[in-house]
Specification:
Helices cover 0% and strands 48% of the residues. The chain is an all-beta fold and 155 residues long.
Length: 155
């Protein structure tokens, strides 16, 4: 969605350009439903119903890590213990038989706690990585992926 920048205060005026959500503008004055703004070397107009004095917020989610990823005694499960990150809603764990997580065998699970046991595994090598996430105003923000851990399932 973009906001039209116009030559005059009204929708019948020529469109000079657009602003995207979150762009900053310098407002000179407001007249009714229109705001006069500084634009390039002069002035232009935008509808003031889309203006907000709220500064864009950069959300930073700290990176999690896999503390331990070990196969259980029966060799058919992997128990994953994650490093806790303060202020996050949960963690997204990705595991695959491909080092680069590109094949169809890549699976993802979301967990709220920092411990997860993955079941129904075949006799292969699994690669595991994790990232933390949090929700701000309905939008989900993720951290970077952790370093990859390798676990071998034997029979």
């Amino acid at each position: 969605d973009s906001l039209n920048i116009r030559e005059g205060a009204g929708t019948s005026y020529k469109i000079l350009g657009t602003y995207n959500h979150g762009d900053e503008v310098k407002v000179v004055s407001i007249d009714g439903n229109w705001a006069k703004i500084q634009y390039k070397d002069g002035y232009a107009y935008i509808s003031n119903k889309y203006l907000s004095d709220e500064k864009p917020v950069k959300v930073i989610v700290k990176k999690s890590a896999i503390r331990k990823a070990v196969r259980t005694k029966n060799n058919k499960k992997i128990k994953i213990i994650l490093k806790k990150v303060a202020g996050v809603k949960g963690y997204q764990i990705q595991y695959a038989t491909s080092k680069k997580f590109t094949r169809k065998t890549t699976k993802m699970v979301k967990v709220k706690k920092n411990i997860k046991t993955i079941t129904k595994l075949k006799r292969k090598v699994y690669y595991i990585r994790v990232r933390a996430y949090k929700t701000v105003k309905g939008k989900i923000y993720y951290s970077k992926w952790s370093n990859v851990k390798k676990v071998r399932i034997k029979k």
